[in-house]
Amino acid sequence: MSFPNSKKILIVAESIDIEDSSGTKGRVALIKNLAKIGYNIKVYHYTRKEIQIKGVECFSIKEKRRSALFLFSRIERYFRKFFKIYLNKSLEKIFGFSFTLFNDRNSIISALKSIKGFEPDLVLTLSKGGSFRPHHALLNMPEFHNKWAAYIHDPYPMHLYPRPYAWVEPGYYKKWKFMKNMSSAAAVSIFPSKLLMEWMGSYFEEFQLKGRVIPHQIIESAVEPENELPTFIDKNHFNILHAGNLLWGRDPKGLINAFCKFLNLYPNAKRESKLLFIGPENHYSEYLKDICDKNSEIYVSKNSLSFSQTQKLQQLTSVNVILEAKSEISPFLPGKFPHCVKANKPILLLGPYYSECRRLVGQSYPYWAEIDQEDKILDSIVSLYHQWKNSSKGLQLSRPDLHEYLSLSYLENTMNQILSDK
């Protein structure tokens, strides 16, 4: 379904390859939903391969390979690869960023300057990780500043991350200055979470003054046929699924210990219960492999599954797990959050007391605990198991309020406000 809309949006994205990161999945979901609303959209992306999004004009930005910056970036790379001499930290202390980033920025600028016959009402920059390449490009294009919507997906620079992730990068002051200049230059800043907007606004006042919240989006699509399910899961069992990368800090030991306690308390549950970890190799892989070898009720994948396969598992499991790091606060909205809401299965939320996820599910949400509160996690698993045993229809999240918050209508209302304010 699309709605008539004459507004033009130029989207400058670092990547639209949904298999490269959870961040890109979220950005592509936003692009698709903006197209569904009916905006006239052109996407210029720096994925550096041809990728198309149905119903959207997408153009791959070419890397500038005939420039001094490109040459310097390759020299630095060769020194690192062949001589094990790492110049990047010293260079970033001087310049703030790498020669590669500067060349990528100029590549994006060159592509945007070549656009003819498309006068956007809004220019939306989408990035991933810690590079913000499209934002660097727009910062150097003042002709777009009065219509620039800068999407800030994570805290930046790295020393602004909450513990345990905060660390001081080389060239941190220049990175800080970049973010400060961006907060002033952009007409509006967009954040996927309210806590992230407040967190960044506490360091850069303009983000608080000009910020808007657009959460990660639900994309409506059919579940793949059940006969394509992987053999490691039985949809008729009580399955607790963690899908995604277990980055350092997302320690699964509390969850695993609680699950093992649950099996000891309810021995009969062993034949019908499973805890599954689906994702790439990570900081905890060795520990997980050891646990998996000793417990047949715990499954750990050797590799990631495709995005569509993962979504299918999330919809056919009994419980989805969101696992965040031990911290005082988590201002992030995990990319998997809308997938879990769409799956309509209870979410076992393990994270800080102050977190965007907990703010959204509500303080009274019963299946929340800190990641090391094993007894509280155990209580949630036991409660969910008993409900699963006694329900003929299976467990359901049943939160239409969350579905609405992540919906097209909420996005359309927010975008109307952004465009009317300009």
UniProtKB/TrEMBL annotation:
Classification lineage: Bacteria, Pseudomonadati, Bacteroidota, Flavobacteriia, Flavobacteriales
Protein name per Swiss-Prot or TrEMBL: Glycosyltransferase involved in cell wall biosynthesis
